[in-house]
Model the fold of this input.
Amino acid sequence: MAENGSLLSSDDQAHPAASAAAASFAGLLSKLDYLSPGDIENIRRAYRFADEAHLGQLRKNGDPYITHPIAVAAQCAEWKLDAQALMSALMHDAIEDCGVTKEELVERFGAPVADLVDGLTKLEKLEFDTREQNQAESFRKMLLAMAKDVRVILIKLADRTHNMRTMGDMPRSKWQRISSETLEIYAPIAHRLGLNFTYRELQDLAFRFLHPWRYEVLSKALNKSRNRRRDLISRVQKEVEGVFARQGMSVRIMGREKTLYSVYRKMDNKHLSFSQVTDVYGFRIVVPELTDCYTGLGVLHQLYKPLPGKFRDYVAIPKVNGYQSLHTTLIGPFGTNIEFQLRTHAMDVVAESGVAAHWLYKASEPGSDMSQRLGTQWLQSLLDIQQETHDAGEFWDHIKIDLFPDAVYVFTPKSKIMALPRGATVMDFAYAIHSDVGNHTVSARINGEQRPLRTELANGDVVEVITAESAEPNPAWLSFVKTGRARSKIRHHLKTVAQEKSHELGERMLSQALRSEGIAALPTEDGEYQSTWEKLLRFTGNKSREELLADIGMGKRIASMVGKKLAVLLSETGLKPDALLISTERYASGRDESASQGVVTLDGSEGLSVQYAPCCRPIPGDRIVGYLGRGEGLVVHAEDCPTGKRLLLRDSERFLEVEWADEPVRSFETTVVVTVTNGKGVLARVASSIAAAEADITHVDMGDEPAQTATDIRFSVSVRDRQHLADVLRSLKRTSSVIKAQRFKPVKA
Done:
């Protein structure tokens, strides 16, 4: 099929660079026998276009640049990708490096090819704060394009593989960064999509350039070991072939050797020497039918004794990326541990090529599209995470969390299998089902027993999630969830709620600050005051009125300062301050002008925009002050709190007056210290006394010291107000064994 003679003139062919490009394109053409003549002609057109676009560009080793896109396309041809993917591979650098536009590609080659090339193109040179941010934004774009069309990442992986194969031509100063990126990002993506051959090659190439000396030492050790064990491997292969032949089973047996990187990682993680890594060698046995996997397992277990605890059935429960095989480790001749993998031909194709098997092996056997289905599930989750996350760095953090090589398999109450990363918790499971289930989760049962939401799941667990309409995500969940999906959903909800609550609080605070300037109400954004708001936003540097009000609620802007500026701008439009209102607001209660921002009334419904300081835990009835923390929203302290007093001395302009509403809408936590005489059943009696006063215990702390005759127990209790707390303390003091009961107060500085 070397029909490239018509592509180049005789003068061009005489040039060595042109000859090199022609030769490599001829090599690509020889791999395209699975495509139609029309497809091959389209690929030839794409080659001509790319060759012209890259004319005069050279790679670091002096070869024409076009040899790189050809090599990428050749790798895609190995995976039997379609003509559109191969055309995109040939032109994947055309937009970035050659000034070609997407519109030009649409016109010449159609929208699907142009979309693929655009997905592969890094972002234009925008002004980012750091290289990492630029990189994160590029990955975000690539992954989102990949979520819409998996061919994007297949071409990208082929591109990275060829770049790693030719890394020796790059300056050594770039080896560390590119190899680390390959190990941390591209190899895990290849593994997640089931491209195991590419995964192993990328790991070994990255290891070679990241740790050249270690790579060399291990490579020599492995060669020596291979020579020493050649007789052993040969003997095992003959014995296994013989036992299957006697059973009349037609099988294909292949030797398998651990990659250098996996040997190195095992040595590093388990602190082993090379001689202690016993499973360097293994065998893969490919059988005709699925049931033959289990028959073959029995044959092997009769030949050699299995090592207890080393059997894995990935046929019945495939890995997350679609991988299926039976794994067993047997004690071979001379006590050597040898791993065997048994799988069908379809499973073998999927095991090596993962998502690419969708093109390689067009569902000619049932179940061969398993990896495509599982890969699509993960790709869809990328889009879900994107909807909640608008910061590129945060998006990439979520994605890296999901690139787990291991998984646990758990069941819903209806026996549906769900795969989650190892270490995943009940909350990860809840969000994997649906974001609404996760957002409203209140409790869970694992194998029929009530368990905490932070419980890590184990293989085979049956998990039932209990929800309530009134429940909302808790910020504490972020400390234990493992999946990127759960983390992004929780963060998105908290940010949305915080934004809404901060906006409401900011509006109240600015309205009150404006009243202190003699203007009764906040002007509307439209109509005659539109230009006033535009001037105010230019003054504060905010993009919108909503953002400004949220910033005031979060403490990033001081309401009194914004109020003064707004009053000045309003006076320019002819709206004059009301002297009587100024007098009423600013001086009626004797407040100092500089400290006046109006009084904020609190009823407990403010949400995340208002925090009640954990140092003093104020409750309704306490005299309180409000500190507008920078980016933290309003933090409420008791008036006599030592921490609050220190902040007042240091940062007085950020304090504002707050007061309790007449009827708070919820209860508030405070701490009670109970001194008891040690004895049997004391804790139960004290807890009963608190319950009798209709208060909830949220936490109990008995300290780490050994129990004495008299012991302090610290309870966090939820009460309505000071009167309710007084009832709790009276109930405690009437309890036998209680020596003293009092509210905990922070120690003065």
